[in-house]
Amino acid sequence: MTGLDRQRVLLIHPLGYGAAAAGGDISRLANLMPPLGLASLAAWVEKHGFTADIIDCYARPQADAAIDAYVRDHRPGLVGFSCTTSSFLDGTRIAARLKGLLPGLRTVFGGPHVSALKTAILERFSAVDYGVIGEGEEALRELLASGGEAPAAIPGLAYRDATGKALFNGYPNQMLALDDLPFPAYHKLEGYPTAYRLPLFDYPTAPNATCISSRGCPYACSYCDRSVFGRSFRYNSATYMYEHLRFLRQSYGIRHVTFYDDNFTVNRARLVELCALLQRRPLGLTFNCAARAEHLDADLLRLLKAAGCWMISLGVETGDPELLSQHRQQADLQTVATALALIKKAGIRTKALLMMGLPGETEASIRRTKAYVFAQPIDTFNLAKFTPFPGSPAYASIHEHGEFNEDWAKMDCMHFQFVPRGLTRPRLEELYRDFQREHFQRAKVLLGYMTMAWRSPDSTRRFLGNLGKFLHFVRTTERYEAP
Ligand code: B12
Question: pTM here?
Answer without folding.
Answer: 0.96
